[in-house]
Design goal:
Number of strands of chain A: 12
Order of helices and strands of chain B: EEHEEHEHHEEEEE
Oligomer: heterodimer
Structural class of chain B: alpha+beta
Distance between the termini of chain B: 30 Å
Shape of chain A: elongated
Largest sheet of chain A: 4 strands, mixed
Strand order of the largest sheet of chain A: 3-2-6-5
Strand content of chain B: 35-45%
Radius of gyration of chain A: 32 Å
Helix content of chain B: 10-25%
Structural class of chain A: alpha+beta
Shape of chain B: globular
Amino acid sequence: MILQALAEYYERADGLAPAGWEYKRIPFYVEIAQDGTFLQLIDRRSGANPADVHLTLVPKAEIRSGTRAFEHPNTLWDHYGFVLGVSKSGADRDKSAAKEQLRYFTSRVNRLCEAAAESIELRAIQAFYERGEYKRVTSDPLWRDCARIAGCNLTFRIAGQLDVAVHAASVRRLLSAATDNHEDKQDVKSVCLVTGEAAPATKLHYPIANVGEKPAPLCATNKASYWSFGKEKGFGFPVSAEANFRYTTALNHLLRSGSRQRMQVGDASTVFWTQKSDEFEEGFGSIFGGGDTPDHTDELHAVLEAIYSGKFDGGRGENRFFVLGLAPNAARISVRFWHAEPLRDIARRIRQWFEDIAIDRGRNEPQYLSLKRLLTSVCLTTKDRPYGDIDRMPPAIGGDVARAIFSGVVLPAALLNAALHRCRAEQAKKEAKTGRPVRHVPYARAAVIKACLNRHYRFHAHNRKEIAVSLDKSNTDVPYVLGRLFATFERMQESAAERELNRTIRDSFFGGAMATPRSVFSRLVALNQTHLRNLKRSRPGAATNFDKLLREINDKLNPKTAFPASFNLMDQGVFAIGYYHQRHDFFPKDSKVAFSQSTSALTSNIEGNRP
Amino acid sequence: MAVQILEISGDFACFTRPEMKVERVSYDVITPSAARAAFEAIFWKPGIRWHITRIEVLKPIRWISVRRNEVDAVVSVDLATEVMNRGRGSLGFFVDEVDDDGKLKHRQQRAGLLLRDVSYRLHGRMELHSDEARANPVKYYAMFERRADRGQCVNQPYLGCREFAARFRRVTDLKSEAPAIEETRDLGWMLYDMDFSTVANPVPKFFRARMDKGAIDLAAAEVRG
C-alpha cells in the first residue's frame, strides 16, 4: 500500500525527474573548451549553507557500495575522485581507490564516445582526459572551496553552451538508447507487488535521502538472515524497475529539503500527500508547525476554519490522505507509522487534537501550539537550550505522538510521564541571570498534560469528567482540587511576604504534594495558617478574599478521601493541571500585573494584585 | 460443511510485507497464507488442503511500533553436517560477540510496525485431495470440528510471527456473532500465498485486496503470480 500510494503520486505530481534521471546538488561545474582545454570551475552554490546548491538534472546515480564501488561510475558526473582522480584523504587506500575511480570513469567516457562519435560534448570531455587537462583543475582558485566539500559532485559544461554537457541532445539520445545493464534482473516471470503487472524483479532499490545521515534504501534485505525461500536481495519482494523508479523518485521528492509536504517529528521524518490533488496537502504542514511564525499561524487558521466549517465533509472529504513517518535505524530506514484515511477523518482528528491541547494561556502566548513546541516542553534541558532540548527527547515518543494524533488514539504514557518528570525536576528552577523562579508548569507542558489526560479518559474512563480549558470551579475531582489548593497556598505565601521571595512552598513541596499528598499537606496547611495570619495583619482585604477562596475549595473536599496517600500517574497530571488553572486564575488577562512572557524566556513576575 | 469458520484473536500480529522485511511493517489485515496456517495448525493431513474463502475483520485496525534486538547470523548447514558426522561440536555462537573495532558482530536492532488487538473471522474450505479423504469427507470435517472445539492443535496458531500467539474458537452459528467493522478500504496488492509447484523455487502470488464493510472476499479475488 505504501509503495503503491507513492507510485501513484509520481503519476500525478509535476516537477519530478523523468525516468532514469534525478535532481542532484552539483556545487561546481567544470567548464572546458571544445578542444578539451580546462577553462575554469563554475560555482553553483546559492548560499552559505552546504545544502544551498542549485539542483541539476543528471542521469540517475548508480547503486554502488563496498570495496569495488569504483567499478560503477556515474554517467558524465560524479564526485572529484571519479572525475579528477583526487583522493579524499592522504591514506594509501584512498589514493589507490581514487586512481581506480578515475580509470573507470574515463573508460566510461571513452565507451560513450565510441557510440556517439559525432557528439561535440563527448569529444570535448574525452579530449579533456586524453590531453591531461584534468590535472589542471586543482590549480583553479575555486578548487579550495570544492575540495572542502566532502564528496563534492562535479559535471561538465562546454564553453559557449548554456546547459550542462549531459543535457545535450546527442548525449540524451545516447543514454536513452543504452540499455540498463547495471541492474541484474531475473528472467523468471514474476508479478510486481506494486502494480500487479508481470515484470522482472529488480535486485537493488534506489536509496532514499534526507531521512538518515546517509541515503539508504527503504526496501532492502542486505544480510543473509533476512532472505527467505532462497531468494536474495530484491528478488524476495518482486518490484518492477518502473515501480522502483517511481516510488523512490516520489519519496525523494517529498523528502527534499525545503519541501512543504514534509515535517520532522522527533526522529521521524514525516511526509504527507493526497491521492487527488488538494490544497490541503500544502497546508497540512502548518498545522504542526503553526504558531511559530505569523505566516504559519495564518495558514493554520485558514485550515482549521475550513475544517470547522465542514469543507471536508462531502466529496472533498472522500479524497484519501496519506501520512508516512520514516525514521533512521542503524544504516536502514524504518517505517514509524503509516496512515491512509479519507480527508474527512483526518480533518476530524486534527480538530480533536487542537481541542485537546486548548488550555488557558497567558496574554503573550500563541493561540496554537506547534508540535515542536509541545514536544520540546517535555524534554531535558541543556546548557544551550534551557527550556527543553528536542535532541534529548526520549526516543520513539515523537513517532508515537504523531501516530496518536493521526489515528485519534491515546497518547503514549511515556509522554505524560516525561511531562510530569520535568515539572518535578524544575520545581525549584531559577533563571540563570536574574534568579527569578521559572514557571515549572508552562503553557506547552500543561497543554500536553491536558491532552494526555483527556484522551485517556475518552478511551478508558468514560465516567470521569474531562479537564476543561480554564479553571473549572465545579470539578470535585480530588487531585484537581488539591492542585487548586496548593496554588492558593502558594499565592497566599507570596502575598503575605513583604518582599519578593526566593523560595516558596512550590520549590520544596510541589513534587511531594503531587505524588504523596497525605504526608505533605499537613505541613502545608499548618504553614498556610501562618501566612493567613500575616496576611490578615498586612492586607486584610486580600485576606478575606483568600479566606473565601479557601473555604470554597475545602468545601469540595470530603474529609474521608481528602488527602490520599499517593496519586497515580493520571492523578498527578490532574494535580498539575489544577495547579496551573488556579495559578492562571490569579493573573487574569486584563489585569495590571506585569506579566511579561516571551515565547523563549518564560519569566514570571510575581508582583501581587494590589487592591 | 466444507466451509469452516474460525475466530482468531490475539494481542499482537505482524503479517510482514515482503518489501519491508527487515524493518517490519505489517499488512493492514491478515493474509490468506497466515489464515491458512491457522487452520493447518489445528488440523492437517497430507490428503487435504485449506483454502481461505473469506476474511472478516472484527476489531478496528490499530498499530504499535516496537524495536527488538535480534541477530543477523544464519545457521551454517556445513557446520551442522560436520558436527553431526563427528558426533560432537558446538553449533552455537556468541550473540554479543565484539569484532576488532569494538562493534557488535551479530546484533541487529530491528524496528517493527505491528498490529495491536486483532480479531478475525476466517472462512476456510477444506479441499480433499487424497482418495481416502474423498471417500470419507464427513470423517475429515468431523475431525477438524472436534479438534477445534476442544482447542487441540499441533502447534499454537500464530498471527504472522510465531511469537504472536493466537486464541481460536470455532464459529458454528454465524448469525449470533459480532459483526465485522464498518470500514471499506482498498488495501492494494496483498500477498495471497506462495506457489510451491516448483519446490526449489517458490513464487509469491498476489491478489487485489478490497475490504468491503470489514470483509475481504477471496473467492472472487483476482490472483496473479
